[in-house]
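TASK: fixed-backbone design
INPUT:
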């Protein structure tokens, strides 16, 4: 697509979370504008939450405005195919769903031909063992995403997902296509690199694993795990305040804070569960689905009020991650659960509870938007968790109104986490 007044063109690309592509294409010589947004669905002007549900058909994309006399559409595609995996259908890493599909929305026949040629060459090369599944389609209407998504990485470089997922892609692109970045962008990149080198002189504290971009803060080998406030400035900060005063009836809770809601409106549908399952990741760093055991499944209430939860064993201090996109409903301290986080999923249908935390992540607050894989706190032994068996107490409930965060119909997390996602 050409802007005749300035001889500019537009490329619309999707390859996983749009924060990654947005960050990669900013600072490239010839790129004049990068916008994160949604395209390819059926719902006009969708919200982020609606797109994350996977029900609208939209893909998270970036719309890149560029000067073809400085950088070509083909060169933009070369970058595109380096920074994401074009062989995984409806998935990039731990991000699963049609909204994360690999897609090129072409704006004219010239772009279509260039894209087809790029894919043919990629398939003929030995870069990938699996076939290319990148979708090619005419450019549909583009809907600009919410303002806070624009230039998200540069505004939030310390955010967990940005550090674990976005930053490595940006570094990979700037290393592979060094000559294509403007000096200002490279200066910022080198500045970040200097900070990382300086940190690297200190004893290792951060280690990444293959658990969907999770970041692990392991204890020193052979040493007793210290209390959270000794981990350093980057770790979680202990918060051991009283429960919320506005819910006085729950402050003395000695059993559990989730109350059973048996109304038909709270019963999860097959579609609800499928959407939740497709989005969820294991909420503890370094723990894979295959290592979860059904023997950790708990049934509380003597058979009269079943409360299904999953106790995920992990060393004290292991980061607890948000299992889905969504928002924090309430931070709460109960006698049974200790420090807990109640959160809503991206569809606003489910309540997810993360219990027995030793500490919350710095800055975590009621009502805060959260993304899948974001650090919520650390595994501990608060509440009724045995001191010699630290674990995350993970529970899910379906509620007709998630703002009534202490009510819900229990949903068993184990089959949702261990069964193959749809």
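OUTPUT:
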């Amino acid at each position: 697509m050409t802007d005749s007044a300035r001889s500019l063109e537009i490329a619309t690309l999707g390859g996983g979370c749009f924060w990654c592509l947005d960050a990669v294409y900013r600072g490239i010589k010839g790129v004049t504008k990068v916008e994160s947004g949604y395209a390819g669905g059926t719902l006009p002007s969708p919200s982020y939450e609606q797109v994350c549900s996977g029900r609208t058909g939209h893909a998270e994309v970036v719309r890149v405005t560029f000067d073809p006399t400085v950088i070509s559409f083909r060169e933009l595609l070369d970058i595109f195919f380096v920074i994401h995996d074009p062989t995984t259908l409806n998935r990039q890493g731990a991000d699963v769903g049609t909204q994360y599909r690999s897609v090129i929305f072409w704006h004219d026949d010239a772009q279509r031909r260039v894209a087809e040629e790029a894919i043919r060459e990629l398939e003929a090369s030995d870069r990938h063992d699996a076939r290319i599944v990148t979708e090619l389609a005419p450019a549909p209407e583009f809907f600009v995403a919410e303002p806070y998504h624009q230039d998200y990485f540069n505004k939030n470089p310390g955010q967990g997902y940005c550090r674990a997922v976005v930053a490595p892609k940006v570094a990979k692109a700037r290393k592979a296509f060094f000559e294509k970045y403007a000096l200002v962008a490279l200066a910022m990149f080198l500045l970040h690199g200097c900070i990382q080198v300086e940190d690297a002189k200190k004893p290792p504290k951060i280690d990444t694993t293959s658990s969907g971009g999770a970041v692990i803060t392991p204890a020193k080998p052979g040493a007793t795990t210290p209390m959270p406030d000794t981990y350093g400035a980057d770790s979680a900060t202990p918060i051991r305040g009283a429960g919320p005063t506005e819910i006085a009836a729950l402050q003395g809770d000695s059993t559990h804070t989730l109350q059973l809601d048996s109304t038909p409106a709270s019963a999860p549908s097959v579609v609800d569960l499928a959407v939740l399952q497709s989005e969820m990741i294991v909420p503890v760093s370094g723990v894979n689905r295959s290592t979860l055991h059904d023997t950790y499944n708990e049934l509380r209430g003597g058979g009269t009020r079943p409360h299904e939860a999953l106790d995920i064993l992990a060393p004290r201090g292991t980061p607890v991650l948000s299992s889905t996109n969504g928002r924090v409903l309430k931070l709460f301290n109960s006698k049974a659960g200790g420090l807990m986080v109640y959160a809503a999923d991206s569809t606003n249908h489910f309540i997810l509870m993360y219990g027995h935390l030793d500490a919350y992540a710095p800055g975590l607050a009621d009502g805060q938007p959260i993304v899948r894989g974001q650090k919520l706190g650390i595994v501990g032994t608060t509440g009724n968790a045995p001191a010699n068996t630290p674990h995350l107490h993970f529970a899910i409930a379906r509620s007709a109104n998630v703002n009534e965060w202490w009510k819900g119909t229990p949903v068993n997390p184990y089959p949702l986490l261990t069964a193959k996602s749809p």
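COMMENT: Residues 34 and 64 are 5 Å apart (CA to CA).
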